[in-house]
Amino acid sequence: MTIIQPMLSAQQNTDITNYINMYRAKNQAPPMAMDANISMVAQQWSYHLLSTGLFQHSGNSNYGENLAQLQGYGTNVTILLKKAIDLWYNEITQYDFTKPDFSPATGHFTALIWATSTSFGLGLSIDMTTNTVDIVMNISPPGNIIGQFQQNVLPTITNAPVNPSVTKTPITNKEEIINELNNLIMELNMNKKKTQVIADIKSVIERLSSV
After folding, report:
1. Mean pLDDT on 128-156
2. pTM value?
3. Full 3-state SS string of 40-93
């Protein structure tokens, strides 16, 4: 196993920060700034995950944490990070703005656009042998706080919440499966009601079965 941890250039930092804030602006969230110290924490955890073969949250309560694992997308840092950010944001298709709350299907999205978060860091580790990439995004202050979703997860400016019937889109690739399982683990760690957890597990199974 040969692991590399590419360092982002100043231009890449700006590009990725603007990309994240483009998504945040869509949901009326103020911009976040990249923090070098937070990125160092994220880099350490991404290396730990890739070197050990684990894929789980660090448990660091100082930050929110989004994870992504990719394979076969090459080694271009900007492309890899934007792919992860796209995966996280695209969970918006599962979020019901009329019932603001945490869900395993949308935990990455809500963390990404959480309105009161102000800074973030990114870590990226690449296994050059298998072309596997583990990406960690740490966010401060952390979001996904029960009871605070309505004021922190805002609808897109062009699409006000109109009591949508949320379509359960199929889970069609490995990255989405990993993200869904990761969100379920997060929900269990948040000690949500068993009935809600069971319902969310069933929802994931339904989406897997529809493939």
Report:
1. 96
2. 0.77
3. HHHHHHHHHHHHHCCCCCCCCCCCEEEEEEEECCCCCHHHHHHHHHHHHHHHHH
